[in-house]
Amino acid sequence: MGAGFTGAVIGRELAEAGIASLIVDERAHVAGNCHTERDAESGVMVHRYGPHIFHTDSERVWNYVRRFGTFEPYVNRVKTTVGGKVYSMPVNLHTINQFFGTAMSPDEARAFVASKSRTDIEDPQTFEEQAMKFVGEELYEAFFAGYTRKQWGLEPSMLPASILKRLPLRFNYDDNYFNHRFQGMPRNGYTPIVAAILDHPLIELRTGCRHEDLTEDFDHLFYSGPIDRYFNYDLGRLSYRTLDFEMIRAEGDYQGTAVMNYPDSDIPFTRIAEHKHFAPWEAGQLEKTVAFREYSRACGPDDIPYYPINLVGGMDMLQSYQDRAALERNVTFAGRLGTYQYLDMDVTIDRALDVAAAYLQQRAAA
């Protein structure tokens, strides 16, 4: 169930082992939230469900995706507008010197930030505690607090420290948003790559089809939808965030960069993404542009769930669903929604490969 990377990779691995499968998705297209398509008016390759930049340290995953499409070099360089001024993200030496109006060396900046940090927090449990230990109150309030409240709809003190641990802090001028060895963008978008993964004679694909509407019997189900939906929300609905996008059309270049964050609390959106800049090899040839203001909000019953909300404590409902899932026979819960985890694309693919391998091993041993 699901024709995103999780379902496609599992199906492909089984197919190459000689096992036929049916892959269904209730949307009219494959690739899930990674779906890309050309905007007819501007010619820009648009990430319909928000920007997806491919980055990984896994050579296995990097080689796998390049089997099915060409990736061009791409470095994600994010900017952020705070108090009417533009800064470099993630927080690096340039950001620190810009924000404090200084010209510190790496060692000076390291000592300066250390003097601002909360040394009394030894083992940060929440996002807020991690930030205070990480960068101190001033940088936290400017770049993280407001953005986090808008993104998650919660106080940072209610979110786990692991969310902030995903972001680097650098004492040099490196503004590459990611630390991973392998980074790139698919030349023709993500959808053709997922379609190529699914292109196998032992894979049957049905789009516009809900898992609940299937009548056939199957040996095994790999389920990548919301875990609470699988159980008909019997114990209640888990918390997810969804995104709304407000389109901006313009001539030429709208903001001069792919992603501009807006952490200030008085601005309702979290960021603006201008999609032509995700394909720099063709951006200069496009006379028109398209960008999207991104708004995050609580996911309702009829919305697309983008990512789960893991709170510090209070996850009893999730544990109950996971306990029930463990008792299901011949069902594997996978992917971001099936495991209720915030997973990047590379981790999703890596885990899908592991899930398929585990199933094949179990099947061979039976």
Summarize the topology.
Blueprint: H1 5-16, E1 21-25, E2 36-38, E3 45-47, E4 54-56, H2 59-66, E5 71-73, E6 78-82, E7 85-89, H3 93-100, H4 106-116, H5 127-134, H6 137-152, H7 162-165, E8 182-186, H8 190-198, E9 203-207, E10 221-223, H9 227-230, E11 240-251, E12 259-261, E13 271-274, H10 280-283, E14 288-298, E15 307-308, H11 316-327, E16 331-333, H12 335-338, H13 345-365
Helix pairs in contact: 1-8, 1-13
Protein name: UDP-galactopyranose mutase C-terminal domain-containing protein
Domain UDP-galactopyranose mutase C-terminal: 142-342
InterPro entries: UDP-GALP_mutase (IPR004379), UDP-GalPyranose_mutase_C (IPR015899)
Number-wise, the strands total 16
Please give the count of helices.
13
**CATH level-two architecture of the largest domain:** 3-Layer(aba) Sandwich
CATH topology of the largest domain: Rossmann fold
Helix content: 25-40%
Task: Provide the residue-averaged pLDDT.
Answer: 94
Inertia-based shape: globular
Q: Could you state the CATH homologous superfamily of the largest domain?
A: NAD(P)-binding Rossmann-like Domain
- Per CATH, the class of the largest domain reads Alpha Beta
Tell me the radius of gyration: 22 Å
**Unreliable residue stretches:** none
| Order of helix and strand elements from N to C terminus | HEEEEHEEEHHHHHEHEEHEEEHEEHEHH
Biggest beta-sheet profile = 7 strands, mixed
Provide the spatial order of strands within the biggest beta sheet: 7-6-12-13-14-11-15
Structural class label? alpha+beta
Q: Quote the distance from N terminus to C terminus.
A: 24 Å
Strand percentage: 15-25%
Count of separate structural domains:
2
